[in-house]
Amino acid sequence: MSDFAAHAERIRAVPDWPEPGVTFRDITPLLADAAGLAATIDALTEVASGWGPIDTVVGIEARGFVLAPPVALRLGAGFVPVRKAGKLPAPTESRTYDLEYGSATVEVHRDAIAPGDRVLIMDDVLATGGTIAAARDLVTSLGGVVVGELVLLELPALGGRERLASDTPLAALVTYG
Ligand SMILES: O=P(O)(O)OC[C@H]1O[C@H](OP(=O)(O)OP(=O)(O)O)[C@H](O)[C@@H]1O
Ligand SMILES: Nc1ncnc2[nH]cnc12
């Protein structure tokens, strides 16, 4: 975790994107740097390692897809995608929710998570918490047990942590604002 802090300054703030008033936190410069990428995956894995056995890491499209599979590999867990609507071919569960900008519907394959599976939910950003709340709802509706929620960065001003409040651990490597 301490090594990650030295790399976090590569996360770029883009004002007024994708719409006026939003400061977009762009993680692409962090991930483009070899040492930054390694430190990010190391730090995320270190946090999740403290949460007990994990069968499945759920990553949320699109930016969660970048972070979840390498962490799943390190944990010896499988990877399950939560995708935007209309992309998964087999029967799905779906949820619709609001974002800081706009709204979205996400889906998961019904057979991707078995009752009792211990599931880690991962994404890049926690803002309003709507995306992780939807993913949590999808996992629990299939009988999965959410063992933790893990993001690279949190925007506390948008209230996601309060919205998601539960006994489940919620961790971010860095917070802004
Ligand atoms: O806490 P919330 O308010 O739900 O916001 C966080 C979500 O917003 C972004 O997703 P976006 O739909 O912009 O998609 P992308 O990953 O496809 O770029 C981000 O990647 C998170 O998934
Ligand atoms: N401000 C922001 N920057 C990057 N990703 C986001 N997802 C939701 N809000 C965001």
Describe the structure in brief.
With 177 residues, the chain is α/β, with parallel strands linked by helices. Helices cover 31% and strands 33% of the residues.
| H and E string | HEEHHEHEEEEHEHE
SS-derived structural category: alpha/beta
Strand count: 9
Radius of gyration: 15 Å
The name of the CATH topology of the domain at 53-175 is: Rossmann fold
Query: What's the mean pLDDT score?
Result: 97
Summarize the amount of helix as a percent range: 25-40%
User: Poorly predicted ranges (pLDDT <50, ≥5 residues)?
Assistant: none
Lateral strand order in the biggest sheet: 5-6-4-3-7-8-9
Name of the level-1 CATH class of the domain at 53-175 = Alpha Beta
Give the distinct bound molecules. Answer: 1-O-pyrophosphono-5-O-phosphono-alpha-D-ribofuranose, adenine
What's the N-to-C terminus distance? 20 Å
Strand content: 25-35%
Question: What overall form do the CA principal axes indicate?
Answer: globular
Biggest β-sheet, characterized?
7 strands, mixed
Would you identify the CATH architecture of the domain at 53-175?
Answer: 3-Layer(aba) Sandwich
Helix run count: 6
